[in-house]
User: Which sequence fits this backbone?
């Protein structure tokens, strides 16, 4: 089943690291210039004291692709790691409640974040940047952790060009100090600002009522954006008509296998299953679910749940349809390093761009959804409260003919 084994992938990644380290990084000094995608990173270590700084590459002026997850679907894991290793991270210690109105360093990062494209910056480091792979070696990270590894050093100075072109939509929310953060987030999304960009804006305390603005660790801001936007979109599905048939969509990338099952229903419900397969072929499954009333508890699978939920409810809103949804995610050993919840969101978005396979019955739909997975249909169903509910009781609408539209 595996297209490539994990040892082959590790070998290629190691070769990629050596190639990068043999490149211009060997000539790094305390003062460097390079292109920022634009991008910033706020760590969660030692919260509420955090390390915040820009990401940039001295190897290429147009660095946009290096931190643009919306463009990474279909890429190999070696490519993703190469992107991350190509960016240098500058760090500066700050408290999350630092006075954003007087902190000129944070204000410079905010200005960088509003830029419409890759921006050339100049930095001065305390010492020569070094390769930091500690988070990789820990072996305790997950997709929700949003780790950052690569070349790192403490910043002493940051200079931006004087002619940065800023996004007017972002400026509008940045300068509106009376607009609530949730309202600003939904506005930016509706205006076409990408999720990865909105998360950076929230992370740097650039939106919300003035007195409430603060720095937010990057990994928290990403899941917060997914959760806030999907919650808003769910409210809108109540007025939509359901699909007529069960639909299945599939997609595979980075050793992750996705099957998305859309079941005709006029009431929203969502269930996500994650099955981690080890090298022996044994599986560990985690499941979280909600109905129209929402989640009872924070999901066990963390940010993965909200990333998947956003991709699905975004699709339903675009289609003006409602459904009950089951997402099956099977993770294989060749996924040797969690790269972030973006790959879940983008993987499911890719799946939903493909043609659906339709079915009349749930049983046949589930059989097709599981036919390329290692975990059996029965094992998935054992963990599915949604499937059990569908088999034991029908909807009130099942007893009436469907209205004509």
Assistant:
């Amino acid at each position: 089943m595996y297209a490539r084994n994990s040892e082959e992938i590790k070998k290629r990644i190691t070769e990629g690291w050596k190639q990068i380290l043999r490149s211009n990084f060997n000539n790094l000094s305390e003062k460097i210039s390079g292109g920022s995608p634009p991008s910033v990173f706020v760590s969660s270590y030692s919260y509420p004291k955090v390390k915040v700084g820009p990401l940039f590459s001295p190897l290429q002026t147009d660095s946009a692709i290096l931190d643009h997850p919306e463009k990474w679907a279909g890429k190999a894991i070696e490519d993703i790691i190469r992107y991350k290793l190509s960016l240098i991270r500058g760090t500066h210690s700050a408290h999350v409640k630092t006075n954003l109105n007087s902190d000129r360093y944070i204000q410079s990062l905010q200005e960088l974040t509003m830029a419409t494209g890759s921006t050339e910056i100049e930095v001065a480091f305390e010492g020569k940047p070094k390769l930091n792979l500690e988070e990789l070696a820990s072996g305790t990270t997950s997709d929700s952790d949003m780790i950052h590894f690569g070349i790192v050093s403490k910043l002493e100075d940051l200079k931006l060009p004087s002619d940065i072109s800023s996004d007017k939509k972002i400026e509008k929310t940045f300068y509106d100090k009376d607009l609530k953060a949730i309202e600003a987030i939904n506005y930016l999304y509706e205006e076409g600002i990408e999720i990865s960009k909105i998360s950076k804006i929230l992370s740097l305390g650039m939106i919300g009522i003035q007195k409430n603005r603060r720095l937010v660790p990057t990994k928290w801001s990403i899941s917060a954006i997914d959760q806030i936007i999907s919650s808003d979109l769910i409210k809108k599905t109540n007025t939509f008509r359901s699909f007529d048939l069960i639909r299945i969509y599939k997609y595979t990338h980075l050793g992750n296998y996705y099957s998305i099952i859309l079941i005709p229903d006029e009431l929203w419900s969502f269930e996500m299953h994650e099955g981690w397969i080890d090298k022996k072929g044994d599986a560990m499954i985690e499941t979280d679910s909600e109905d129209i009333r929402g989640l009872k508890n924070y999901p066990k699978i963390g940010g993965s749940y909200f990333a998947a939920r956003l991709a699905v409810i975004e699709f339903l809103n675009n289609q003006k349809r409602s459904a009950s949804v089951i997402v099956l995610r099977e993770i294989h050993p060749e996924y040797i390093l969690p790269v972030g919840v973006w790959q879940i969101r983008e993987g499911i978005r890719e799946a939903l761009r493909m043609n659906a396979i339709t079915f009349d019955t749930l049983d046949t739909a589930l059989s097709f959804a599981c036919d390329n997975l290692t975990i059996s249909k029965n094992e998935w169903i054992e963990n599915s409260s949604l499937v059990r509910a569908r088999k034991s009781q029908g909807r009130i609408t099942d007893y009436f003919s469907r209205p004509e539209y």
Remarks:
- The domain at 6-166 is CATH 2.40.50.110 (OB fold (Dihydrolipoamide Acetyltransferase, E2P)).
- Residues 134 and 149 are 8 Å apart (CA to CA).
- The chain has a mean pLDDT of 89.
- DSSP finds 13 helices and 13 strands in the chain.
